[in-house]
Amino acid sequence: MSILRRAALAALALAASVAHAHSGSTAYLQAVVAADRVELRADYALRDLDDALGVDADDNGQLTWAELQTAAPVLLGYLIPRLHIAGDAAPCALTASPEVKVTDHADGPYVVFQFIAKCASVPGEWQLTDRALFEFDASHRALVRWQQEGHSSSATLTPEQQTLTLRGARSGWATLREYVHEGLAHVWSGWDHMLFIAGLFLPAALRREGKRWQPVQRLGPALADAVKLVTAFTIAHAITLCLTALGVVSLSTRLVESLVALSVVFAGLNNLVPMAGRVALFALAWVFGLIHGTAIAGALLELGLPTSGRLLALLGFNIGVEAAQLLLVAVLVPLAFALRRWRGYQPAVLWPGSALVALAGLVWFINRAFDMGWRLPI
Amino acid sequence: MTVVGGAEQSDGTQAPLSAGGRKRRSGSAKSLAALALSLSAWAAHAAEPYTPSSSDTVLLQRAAGAAKALREARGLSLPSDPASRVAAAQAAIDRGRSTGDPRYFGQAQALLGSDWTAPSPSLPVRLVRATLLQQRHDFAAALADLDAVLATDARNAQAHLIRANIRMVQGEPQRARPDCAALIGQAGLLVTATCIGTVGGLTGQAKSALQAIELTLAREPEAPRQIRIWALTQAAEIAERLGDLPRATEHYATALAEATAAGENDVYLKAAYADFLLDQQRSAEVKTLLAGEADFDPLLLRLALAEQQLAAAGDSKASGAAALHLKALQERHALVASRGDPPHRREQGMAALHLQRDAKAALVLAQQNWAEQREPADARLLLQAALAAGDHAAAEPVRVWMLSTKIEDVRLKPLLVQLDAAP
Question: Residue B106 and residue A158: Cα distance in Å, rounded?
Fold first, then answer.
């Protein structure tokens, strides 16, 4: 604070005396993001810049505005190589305003620098790096405020962590595409989900007559049935997935994961020892869908929902899950249909396959429900 | 070796964003989590940039030539030879001590360069590192360095002295005694006598300890000024604990006079003397003592406490000033948390107890503080907070500590009596 300003603020003498905290060296970075551009305001303590680079040209202890203006090119020459903004790991062009300004933070006067970073495209992820002053003072910190689409986040840069990574704003289409992809990936990499579906559709080209399985006549109705079953399952899990991901409901992970394992056991056993008829199977697919939804929500939450476009992300994720399941049905059901009249299908595929599904479900169930801590290969 | 954590934040007010080349998933999850963070440190410092009206406007007044001297001492890059780096770091520490400005400690650490994290650096580096670690209350890491120094050089006086000090701050004065005894013949008489006397003052021999320090002070008028100030401060505190107010007043006054003459800004001494004055309701003197010292968090707290006392005594202007200072103090604490610095729990606890009158929060802070440091002031804070919160069990660790150390302190005993008498 200037002496002139202090005189003018005599009425606030108390506040002025307070406003000189002796904390460690602190810089304040404020970034405002607009599409592919970042406006960066960086405040460094005048005292720190004087210590590090020399602002007080005549060394008389009085740092004047004229001296600061003269030193500004040197200060910028020091800062520019140490400040980086990158979008998706590609450096963005950083231009500095040649004009510096002054401001007051709690521990005295600061020099305000303005930068604009222009990136090649709208990045999905930003990196902000500030390496300034750490080499002189190991207790230097840079407090960052990052503003994007009306949201603010804050972080602290330290000598050990001089780079900050932030998710960028992206178009609704990009969000949708990314989450469709995540939904697909979730089904393809989640063994319990796959086995449940597989268990459900091993007998897709068969229909039960009394206690025996008989081959169906046409592929069309078999496929239609399978799609309906999968869709019932998907709608059910979309409901709980959304409710859980949005924080409306929350169930214990252990309970949910155990129930998912039980549903896999059921899907396998039901092929060996028929328990549910056609209508009951739809009802069960629905109930199990509700359970799987809460389980998938866990995976989605781990991934992180974007603050903007949350609904799009949820929609994309569900579309991805449904698409993955339909793909599975599109492969499994015709295969099962082709093999339906083969003698060996039931003894060599259906029964051992279903037994395997049930067994895997049982192992999962024991592991999850009783917290066994087994490290299973799948 | 523990190094102050990167973006780790205390108090849950802020969580770290991801940094460096982490995997995308965890990175984005973390940064999303951070979107909901409080921006307290920012809110406190939102300041509009301006262009000064005149070229002659003085933006900052510093000691003439100080920055130049600093730059010249440091050179353009880190000195390549280790001896001059350690010497520069030690000089920065000395400057930090005499000004009370924590930036110099960070500069000292930077001067150590990669030696700061080296598993087994040279002995001089270890000593400087231990000093810095102790200064930031990382006692375990400091002790590891000191033990290593003493394993090689069993007579190293500086290492013994720092280790003795750590033991005392940790509330184990008995364990400091061998380190103080090891100073005999290795350090100056006043240093040795003050170390041994301070231990005695905390372990049931306060009267003879005080006499010993006083005698040595009288016999060693030519001892270095910083050591005299330290000895006088210790003597004042022992006298204060013994309830000998005139003697304490005399020692504090002499210590302050010597500090002023030496151009030292001894924040510890001023805070201790301010507490002494506040206990006697001499708040006007505290305001005089600390005028212009609000820069320093511990002194800002005492200033606010003095204003609160004045307000309670009917000074209408003082209550507004106390509120302003409390607000500033809270902003400082928020900044400390944002920076990820180790929190000053003793000061936070005192502010919660005496200024905010939040007994429960004060007790939590006092207990956390007691887990880190156990000086008489920490014991007092915990007893006061336990009493205010009506939680007698919380006072138990202090009672046990008082019995085991046999400490004599006229401020602690009545608090125990009050705790016993309360329902």
Answer: 12
Which of B14, B63, B336 lies closest to A61 in CB terms? B63
Is the CB of residue B363 less than 8 Å from the CB of residue B351?
no
B156 Cβ neighbours under 8 A, 6+ residues apart: B123, B127, B149, B150, B186
The DSSP call for residue A346 is: I
Token pair for residue A125?
């992820």
Distance CA B420, CA B423 (A): 8
What value of ipTM does the predicted structure carry?
0.81
Q: How confident is the model at residue A378 (pLDDT cuts 50, 70, 90)?
A: low
Q: Which of B5, B33, B295 sits opposite A21 (nearest CB)?
A: B295
The predicted-structure confidence for B120-139, as pLDDT tens digits, reads as follows 999 999 999 999 999 888 99
Residue A14 clears pLDDT 50, i.e. is over it: no
Q: Do A143 and B44 touch (CB under 8 A)?
A: no
Q: How many whole angstroms separate alpha carbon B76 and alpha carbon A78?
A: 12
Look at B220 and A291; give whichever has higher pLDDT: B220
User: Which comes out higher in pLDDT, residue A320 or B381?
Assistant: B381
Radius of gyration in angstroms for the set of CA atoms belonging to chain A, rounded to a whole number: 31
Q: For residue B260, give both structure tokens.
A: 């002023």
Positive or negative, the CA dihedral A73, A76, A78, A80 is negative
A:155-214 residues touching chain B, CB 8 A cutoff: 155-167
Please state which of the ranges A16-30, A68-82, A198-212 shows the lowest mean pLDDT.
A16-30
Q: What pLDDT score was predicted for residue A306?
A: 58
Give tens-digit pLDDT for A177-190. Answer: 878 888 888 777 77
The pLDDT tens digits of the residues spanning B74-84 come to: 665 667 788 88
Residue B208's contacts (CB-CB under 8 Å, 6 or more residues apart) are B200
A103 Cα to chain B: minimum distance (Å): 5
Chain A within 8 Å of B48 (Cβ-Cβ)? yes
Mean pLDDT of A37-62: 93
CA distance A256 to A261: 9
Q: Residue A20 gets which letter from DSSP?
A: B
Residues B44, A106: C-beta atoms closer than 8 Å: yes
CB contacts, 8 Å: A134 with chain B:
110
* Cβ-Cβ contacts under 8 Å, A46 against chain B: 59-60
Q: Over the stretch A92-111, which tens digit does the pLDDT of each residue have?
A: 999 999 899 999 887 789 99
Residues 6+ apart with CB under 8 A from A100: A68, A69, A72, A75, A76, A111, A112, A113
Low-confidence ranges of chain B (pLDDT < 50): 1-44
User: Which residue of chain B is at minimal alpha-carbon distance from A135?
Assistant: B110
* Chain A residues in contact with B107 (beta carbon < 8 A): 51, 136-138
Q: Is A349 on the interface with B (CB under 8 A)?
A: no
Instruction: Determine the Cα angle at A255 with ends A254 and A256, to 5°.
Output: 95
CA distance A28 to chain B (A): 8
Instruction: Name the residue with higher pLDDT: A35 or B163.
Output: B163
Alpha-carbon span B253 to B233, nearest angstrom: 9
**Does A237 contact B at CB distance below 8 Å?**
no
Size of interface A-B (CB pairs under 8 A): 257
CA distance B4 to B20: 17
A24 interfaces chain B, CB cutoff of 8 Å: yes
Burial class (CB in 10 A: 0-12, 13-18, 19+), A357: buried
In chain A, residues 91-130 whose CB comes closer than 8 Å to chain B: 101-110, 112, 125
Alpha helices, DSSP H only, in B187-224? 189-202, 206-219
Chain A CB contacts of B103 under 8 Å are 22, 24-25, 48, 51, 137, 139
User: How many CA atoms does the CB half-sphere of B42 hold within 13 Å?
Assistant: 20
Structure tokens at B68: 């130049």
